[in-house]
Amino acid sequence: MHPQMMLLLEIQDLRLQKTALLEEPGLTEVEEGHFNIDPQEAVAALDRKIGELKELLEPSIKNRCERGLPSLGRMVVPVIGGVCYGCFVSVPTSRSGPRGQLVETCENCGRFLYFLP
Amino acid sequence: MKLRELFTPNVVDLNIQSDSKDDILKELIGLLGMDEKSEAILFKTLKRRENLGSTGIGKGIAIPHCRSLVVNRLRLAYGRKPTGVDFKAIDGSPVHNFFLIVAPPLEVSNQYLPVLGKIAQFAKDPDVPTRLKEMETPEEFLGLLEEKAQ
By the number of CB atoms within 10 A of the CB, which of A4, A5, A97, B106 ranks highest? Predict the structure, then answer.
């Protein structure tokens, strides 16, 4: 897997934690009640880490993320069963597996693709 | 869905070998049988979740959990460290029992939160820590889930 894709996945996972804390009904209560988490502090810490990691992205990839994120929501999506899970359009079979040295994007929606093994 | 239905014997390890928080997380992740890169990403995500606050909820139990792109369905694992390890738990006690929960970003049946709640509830049953300590086989663990958790 391309190192930049690893970084994109890390960033996306942190965004997921943040979104879950902010928007997933009931999760905040569970995190506060069972795990003593302060959701506001947690979101701020996640934002800081996301900011740090974004600085490690290559400029072209970072720009693509920043341009696409407001409209696309998630910039990194899995490919499952040959389908992009961002736009649910089939990914050409010639690109149906990870090519290792490339950061793959969906030809239809432009999101970065992560091929689940 | 009942908790019992989400576990199989091969994701249960009653004799975790690691002695540090990080290594225990890696050992738990190893039970899921993923590829190396996915394991590495999942470890980082779980570690960052731990940095927000320990998932050690007290009474010797921790529930490391997160959502991650590297899984395509809800995945659970259980590990037991008989001698216990410092996991920075809420009550400061060593942790002996680890329940790992990893969910994809989107789930059709949206089980992540209910499962997290059920395991937290299961762990709070006063009888459970002793029963977990006495188990000798993964099947006994599954039996305990069947008996105690809905």
Answer: A5
With CA atoms as reference, the chain A residue closest to B89 would be A35
Chain B residue numbers with beta carbons less than 8 Å from the beta carbon of A25 are: 113
CB B69 to CB A12 under 8 A?
yes
Q: Which of A9, A34, A42 sits opposite B52 (nearest CB)?
A: A42
- Give dist(CA B76, CA B68) in Å, integer: 13
Sorted by where each begins, the domain ranges of chain B are: 3-148
Tokens of B2: 């009942």
Q: CATH class for domain B3-148? A: alpha beta
Single pTM value for the model: 0.88
* Chain A residue whose CA is closest to B56: A35
**What single-letter amino acid sits at B31?**
L
Q: End-to-end alpha-carbon separation of chain A, Å?
A: 11
Which domains occur in chain A, in start order? 3-115 (1.10.287.1490)
Question: What are the CA-CA distances from residue A113 to residues A73, A82, A95, A107, B37 (Å)?
Answer: 14, 11, 10, 10, 15
- Classify residue B140 as exposed, middle or buried by CB count within 10 Å of its CB (0-12, 13-18, 19+): middle
pLDDT in single tens digits along all 150 residues of chain B: 788 889 999 999 999 999 999 999 999 999 999 999 899 999 999 999 999 999 999 889 999 999 999 998 999 999 999 999 999 998 999 999 999 999 998 777 788 989 998 998 888 888 898 999 999 999 999 999 999 876
Q: Which helix (H) or strand (E) holds B85?
A: strand B75-85
Tokens representing B95 are: 């942790």
